[in-house]
């Protein structure tokens, strides 16, 4: 049996086969006297924190340690996929430590979005969760929007507490930490250090910021299985994750018409007056319109081709669809949310629709964000 080699930076067991999993190091690094994982290497040499993800049980074990400490917790969610990136029962694990909500990716919202309205919407959604917060912030970690508000919250609430950053995979947690390092620390010639968070093996990583009292502790993102982004391969992921401001696409539909979102989701307008449906998905994802009577044959003939993603690497699980039957009331503006893909806004005309998605993917309704 090969000896176990651990990272001297964070303490995790090193491995060379899976770059997207914790503890990855290139084979060349394993020959060094004191090897470190790629993630710690990037923190140390480039002031860059890179993403790492764990399964639910490992995540719970890590965040449960927070409840035993004096901590200030930043909970990061994806504003574009709020319900899909929300972690339930986090308060159960972090105890009475103050919790601040960071809603990331505000830069993806269309340019005409009223951010005050979006902020009020966020507050209402949080109130439904019945969770006490120290505050909220709409931010774009990529663009640097709203980061000062997060910095101010840390200065106001952290006191002598360590600052933990938690969230699901792909919410932009690491990008946020890198932004905060830039605000708090000297990122020029100063070498940042990491150390293993006590009591864990799938490690949270402590980022010590020079000349600042509070370390930032980056916890691994929790892997979920209810978002389309969880189910596709890395190649197809690029086709469904927005990488720039969303351009809404409006389809004036008659009843008995269908929209295909690649080959990953299908929207059937069954009955109601002719009306617009506004689609908020990644700009690079193709949307195809057809008659409802032709939808089944179109899918069978073109899935993986004209209707892509998915590709062959994604597997057959994405072709095992279930139907969500929805009745929308007249006079209410509603978003139909497909977790990990986006949403379809229906502005008050009333209708009956079916939404087809791969088994396990969440479909939900909410008051319109925009």
From TrEMBL:
Gene3D superfamilies noted in UniProt: P-loop containing nucleotide triphosphate hydrolases
InterPro entries: GTP-bd (IPR006073), GTP-bd_ribosome_bgen_YqeH (IPR019988), Mito_lipid_metab_GTPase (IPR050896), NOA1/YqeH-like_C (IPR048422), P-loop_NTPase (IPR027417)
SUPFAM superfamilies: P-loop containing nucleoside triphosphate hydrolases (SSF52540)
GO molecular function: GTP binding
Pfam families assigned to the protein according to its UniProt record, in alphabetical order: MMR_HSR1, YqeH-like_C
NOA1/YqeH-like C-terminal domain boundaries: 274-368
Residues in G domain copies: 163-224
Record's protein name: Ribosome biogenesis GTPase YqeH
Gene field: yqeH
